[in-house]
Each structure stands twice: as structure tokens, then as C-alpha cells.
Amino acid sequence: MNYSKFSTFASQTKGRVFLEKPDKHRTCYMRDRDRIIHCAAFRKLKYKTQVFVYHEGDYYRTRLSHSIEVSQLARSISKIFKVNDDLAEAISLAHDVGHTPFGHAGEEALNSKLHKIGGFNHNFQALKILTLLEKKYFGFDGLNLSWETLEGILKHNGPVKEKIPSYIYKFVNFFEGDLGLNASFEGQIASISDDIAYNNNDIDDGLHAELFTIEELENVTLVKESLKKIKIKNFRNDNYKLRHELVRLLINTMINDLVSNTKINLLHLKPKDVFDIIRIKKNIVSFSDDMIHKEEELRTFLKKKMYNHITVKTMTFKAKKIVLELFDLFVEEFQLLPKVWRTFETKRELMLNVADYISGLTDKNAISIHNKFFNLYNI
């Protein structure tokens, strides 16, 4: 592929923490992608909540299907701008591997238990998994990914301003990375692809769950504009097809706006190379102000009608209770932990071990283990 001057070239990578021979047939970013796909944490995303717990039905997105959809968007957008689609794909596939069971509910529960010792952040946890907790290789812990992939995941939400754990400082310092600089072009694409995917996934899943109707959605400007472009009369008796036609059109509308506005940013800000991309304070890859406003309106609707819906809130309450009770149990009775997690010297290390163990569980595992210890009928 004929990459643009804004692309992150594999030949110019800062490399890996542990030196390895180059692969004959794959670039370093292709290799990163393959390692991510084959790691345990990625496979577990199959049974980790996006919005609905896995047993709510087979239709709904999981963290795995969401990550695949993000990577598909990121590859497509990367090809438009002729930047490194392998790197964008690797970042996209790995961006959610640090999520706990039950999505943000599980993360909030663990964060509340760890708030005195630094809290819990799923983005930081992803880096911990990829650099320490995955144990598949003789020569090192983690996956030994390239710096550019790790940086893209770390800066998934932009430059890192909050305090970071020591395990992140170690590899950032090794590569002489700068947390205050912006993400690469590919990292910015992966980030906004995540936004496009989850907004539209949630519309589809919310409609499928009948948490709201298309008529209610029509009050959202972006949706109303899209519905006007669809010959609704042809779909009046087929809400299933109408729903999918709407979601496809919304995704297409967002991507078109993104591409158009990003090209305007490139013309206006005049970056000369990849170094200018990361030094410019604002994201080059971004929606127009008009689309940002419309997306915020959509998010407000989804928060009110979906995330705060009694069905989802009930599930969230139960999920937090499961995680909180498991955490307290394993801290008080650490002998109940699997053997590999029983090695610690201080209470702090025990708490972190418990958090690492619980965060690595799937929804399915967490429910099963909770039933084992808290359902008296299992005695």
C-alpha cells in the first residue's frame, strides 16, 4: 500500500521492550494484531457485557463483537487517509481487553474498592494485561507489543493527564514516550471508530430490546435527518429492516462527516508529517462542530432511554453487587482464590491480585462463582 506522509511506518517503529527477530512475512503491527487476537483476554470478550449481560440474549453486542466492529471501521477509515490500517486495527482490537465483567458497572464496583490505592481504570488495566498478566511466552510476560500499539491503546481517549500506575511508567520510560502528546493518526482513528460503533450499536440493541421506539428516536436531530432520507413507507410494516437501514445510514453519515472534517483540519492546520500530527493540541481526526452537537444529543437520548432504563439499571445493580461481594470475599478469604493469585506480601498486593482476578472474569464466570459461594442451595 502507498502510505501517506501521516502514516506510522512499521519500518520506523521504536520496537518492543524485549528484542525479537523480525517476522519474514508480517510487519510488527500485523504481528501485534495477531498476538492480540490469540490472547486469552481477547477471547474472554465474547462473554463480557457491552450493555446487556450475555444471558439476556444472543443478539446483543458483547465486548468482542463491539471490538471487531470498531476494528472494521478503523481499517476502512485508515484506508481512506492511506495511513497504517494494521496499526489502527491492532489498537482497535485491544482497546477493551481491560474491561471487567458487566461493563462499566463492574468497573465502578472495583474502582470503589480500590479508590484508596489508585482506583481501577479499564484502559490502564488493558495495558497491564498486555504487558504483564498475559503469560504465553518463555522470554517475557505480556505480549511484548510494539510501542506504537501500546501508545495508541494508552492514549485511546487522548493525551494522558491523570496519574498512571508504575507498570505503565516502566514501558513509557523505556521508550522515552511523552504522555502529553496526542495520539497517532491511527490512534485517533481507532478512538473515534469506537464512538461511531458504540453509539450505533446501542441504537440497534436498544430498539431490539424495545427500550425505546423509532418514533421516540425520531426526536433526535441526527436520526430525524436520516429517516427523511429513507423511504419509510416501504418499511412501515417491517421495523426490523427499517432499524438496520437507519443504523447503516447513521454510520455512513458519521463517517462522511468525519472524513470531510478531517480533510478540512489537514488543510487548515497544515501538518507536515507524523510528528506534527501528535504535537498539534487538537485531534486531526474529528467530527465537525455540527456533528459533535448532534452526537451529544444522541448520547443524551441513549442515557435517558437506555442506560437509565429500569431493565438496564436493575441489571447494573445486580452486577455491582456480584463484583463487590466477590471482592470482599476474596480479600477476607484469600485461600479461596485460584492458586496463581495467592502470592502477595501486603494487603495492597492482595487487593490488586483480587482486582486482576475479578476483572479477568467473564460475566458467565462471575455469576457462576458468585452462585457457588453465595447461593446456600449450592452447599
- Total domain modules: 3
Low-confidence stretches: none
Proportion in β-strands: under 5%
Q: Helicity, in percent?
A: 55-70%
> Which architecture of the largest domain per CATH?
Orthogonal Bundle
CATH T-level fold name of the largest domain: Hypothetical protein af1432
CATH level-1 class of the largest domain = Mainly Alpha
Q: Give the overall form.
A: globular
Secondary-structure class? mainly alpha
The total beta strand count reads 0
Series of H and E elements: HHHHHHHHHHHHHHHHH
Helices, by number, come to: 17
Provide the gyration radius in Å. 22 Å
Mean pLDDT: 93
Largest sheet: none
Distance between the termini: 61 Å
CATH superfamily grouping of the largest domain: Hypothetical protein af1432
What does this structure look like?
Helix content is 60%, strand content 0%. It is mostly helical. It folds into 3 domains: 10-174, Hypothetical protein af1432, CATH 1.10.3210; 185-305, no CATH class; 312-378, no CATH class. The model has no long low-confidence stretch (mean pLDDT 93).
